[in-house]
Amino acid sequence: MIELYGMSKAIVYPFHNESLGLGIVEALVSGCDVIGANLPYIQSICHPSVVFDPYNPKSIANAVERYENGIIQKSVLTIYNHIDELIELLSDTI
To answer: Which pTM value belongs to this model?
Structure first.
């Protein structure tokens, strides 16, 4: 997947709900922007380049067009991996 992300400028994430957002994180870490549904789960993971109404095909098409025309901001990941800190915390309690 990392190779595919590396060949892409952006990922379009039209899903109506998401449990973890791993695909979004993978894309961002690989240098892709996110064009995503204007829903809370996207905002809890990143600041996407462009958002759209996932129930409206025209809105999705317009978002991709805005991205391609450069009317965007760079996507920014807003969650971070803290597993090492968690392991250290748990190790200290043993």
So the answer is: 0.81
**What are the DSSP calls for 2-57, one per residue?**
HHHHHT-SEEEE--S--SS-HHHHHHHHTT-EEEEESSHHHHTTEE-SEEE-TT-H
- Topology of the domain comprising 2-92: Rossmann fold (3.40.50)
Q: Cα-flanking dihedrals φ and ψ of residue 62, to 5°?
A: -65, -35
**Angle subtended at Cα 52 by Cα 43 and Cα 50, rounded to the nearest 5 degrees:** 65
How many Å is the maximal CA-CA distance in the chain? 55
Local structure of residue 78 (DSSP, 8 states)? -
Give, as one character, the DSSP assignment of residue 69.
T
Tell me the pLDDT tens digit for each residue of 12-52: 999 888 777 888 999 999 999 999 999 999 999 999 999 99
